[in-house]
């Protein structure tokens, strides 16, 4: 069973950010060959806990479970609203408090929403560098949805969502299974253990 974690940094309820996150998750899960479980994390529900974790260095309670869900997922979909030409502070805070190395090699699909198409490059000049620093494997297609993308039948949004979802599914399926250290794989011979006595 493949697990996809979805991080939505929308502030409203409902929000266009969550709507985009849900569409991306549906596209990615549909493109996977096997069954997939989708775990969605609304960052607005963990805002206070994230500040506490920033101050103490230790996530706790339901926020700890959310952070572990993201760290243990086979793939990640991360979506933020764009404020002042960049990702939201809530979005950045979440990734600041994740344990170092927890996203290394994780396939990630990036999405963003905003009031105007002028902010569409925020994915490439703010989000990609963040996930490159975290050593995640980001899919080529990022999906930005402006306000006009939601009400028009002429929009290319569904096509971009489908393409990005397929790219994430391909990256998740191509990812090698994590190596598990087995302490019993190469046991020390009993004679060698007794040689010290």
In words, what does this structure look like?
There is one protein chain. This protein is an alpha/beta fold. It has a single domain, classed as Flavodoxin domain (Rossmann fold), CATH 3.40.50. The chain has 8 helices and 7 strands; from the N terminus they run βαβααββαβαββααα. It has helices spanning 16-31, 47-56, 61-72, 89-97, 122-133, 148-151, 157-174, 190-195; strands at residues 2-8, 36-42, 75-83, 86-87, 107-114, 137-138, 143-146. Strands 1, 2, 3, 4, 5, 6 and 7 form a 7-stranded mixed β-sheet that branches. α5 (122-133) links the parallel β5 (107-114) and β6 (137-138). α1 (16-31) packs across α7 and α2 (47-56) packs across α4 (89-97). The termini are far apart. The model has no long low-confidence stretch (mean pLDDT 91).
What global shape is seen?
globular
- Please count the beta strands (DSSP E, at least 2 residues each): 7
Top-tier CATH class? Alpha Beta
Q: Give the tally of structural domains.
A: 1
The CATH superfamily bears the name Flavodoxin domain
Number of helices: 8
Strand and helix order:
EHEHHEEHEHEEHHH
CATH architecture: 3-Layer(aba) Sandwich
Mean pLDDT: 91
Organism: Actinomadura coerulea
Enzyme class: oxidoreductase
GO molecular function, one term: FMN reductase (NADPH) activity
Pfam family, one: FMN_red
